[in-house]
Design brief:
By secondary structure, the protein is an alpha/beta fold. The protein folds into two domains: about 1-65, no CATH class; about 90-370, TIM Barrel. It is about 30% helix and about 15% strand. Helix 8 links the parallel strand 8 and strand 9. The longest helix has 20 residues, at about 210-230.
């Protein structure tokens, strides 16, 4: 249950609204009456939800002094709009088309190099973007590729992909680096990074739409920054409404520099009643692009057949083998193409290399095999 947020500090306690009643669906619901006079109505597309909202501002928390969101009721709203140059994606700087790196069907995400004695490679691996810089200063953590590989127990020379998926605080730290973002991006190829994914600035169902529009614009800006500084980058398209996906579709169609998309079907987007909405939006972008696109995916493995048919290539960033290994669990493949996890305790301080290798191979076999994968991804922050 989500709480509808009052617009005044002295308002009555907020009532709870089922999350599904805040899901936008223009085919079933009528746009809120207050949307018709909103200056952002055209670019937003107007919010159409089952809950009886006058407008999206009914979801305002009503406490601007303690709120950092770019809501129209916030006294700093104009400054927040100005920092992204307005909500129109049309003024995002253009960039050159960079050669698209070839990635395998499955890339394992590593979160650290602990508990392993052997380095892995030479197949590409993925690392968190936010581990590349220091939280407080924004300075790079690593001076060389070898230093980075030593930290994560990777074979030197291994191609590295950076994933921008995380909780909101690391995402906001990246945005808060401002001009230093470009300095970091310029240094990343020297660390062996072959591609990054934009931060998945979050879109939520229980906030005013201005917050979504601000997040969408930031995704476009950061994507352009990566490309301008010479690093191939996947555009992580987030959407709350059909209009959001249509806007992304028009943007991708007009920007040949967009060669890779990224999406994640975890937490909210993975809900059984909502995932088809996000899948349809993603397929619409692919169909309208007018050229082959590559997709980098987290979660949503049951939708791989439809996604593989729509995109030139699909690469799955899998976190399961790493997470299950750290929890000392071993994959067990069944004859029916499914899998289960068994407890696999190790002595205190013992390395987990063998267990990790078993889990990596098992997860890869399921994802690449002819049967539909039946693996739940560990939950992470989701747009």
């Amino acid at each position: 249950m989500l709480k509808a947020r009052g617009r005044r500090p002295d308002a009555a306690p907020p009532i709870e609204i089922a999350e599904r009643r805040l899901w936008h669906d223009e085919r079933r619901n009528t746009p809120s009456l207050g949307c018709w006079g909103c200056p952002e109505g055209g670019i937003c597309g107007r919010l159409a939800v089952e809950a009886g909202l006058t407008s999206c501002l009914d979801l305002c928390c009503g406490r601007p002094a303690g709120c950092d969101k770019p809501c129209r009721n916030h006294p700093d709203y104009a400054l927040r709009v100005r920092e992204v140059g307005g909500f129109d994606l049309g003024n995002v700087p253009r960039a050159s088309v960079l050669p698209a790196p070839d990635l395998p069907a499955v890339v394992t995400v590593l979160f650290h190099g602990d508990s392993r004695e052997q380095s892995i490679g030479a197949a590409p691996v993925a690392l968190p973007l936010y581990r590349m810089f220091k939280r407080r200063s924004g300075a790079l953590r690593f001076a060389t590729h070898d230093e980075l590989c030593a930290e994560f127990s990777i074979v030197p020379g291994t191609p590295i992909v950076l994933t921008g998926t995380d909780q909101d605080p690391p995402l906001e730290r990246w945005w808060g680096l401002e001009a230093r973002r470009r300095e970091i991006i310029r240094a990343l190829p020297g660390l062996g990074i072959v591609l990054s994914i934009t931060p998945n600035f979050s879109l939520f169902s229980d906030v005013p739409r201005h917050v979504d529009l601000h997040a969408i614009k930031r995704i476009g800006i950061v994507h352009a920054e990566f490309l301008t500084e010479g690093l191939p980058c996947a555009l992580h398209v987030n959407g709350r409404t059909e209009t959001d996906f249509r806007r992304w579709g028009a943007y991708v169609r007009s920007r040949p520099e967009v060669t890779h998309l990224a999406y994640e079907f975890t937490t909210g987007t993975a809900r059984a009643r909502r995932r088809d909405f996000h899948l349809d939006g993603l397929l619409e972008i692919a169909a309208s692009a007018g050229r082959p696109l590559r997709l980098i995916l987290r979660g949503g493995l049951e939708m791989l057949p439809r996604l593989r048919a729509a995109f030139h290539t699909v690469t799955v960033l899998e976190t399961l083998s790493f997470m299950k290994t750290m929890k000392r669990q071993r994959i067990e493949l069944r004859e029916n193409g499914r899998a289960r996890w068994r407890s696999a305790p190790t002595p205190r301080g013992a390395p987990v290399d063998a267990l990790f290798a078993i889990n990596q191979a098992g997860v890869r076999r399921l994802i690449e095999g002819p049967e539909l994968p039946a693996l739940p991804e560990p939950e992470t922050a989701d747009a």
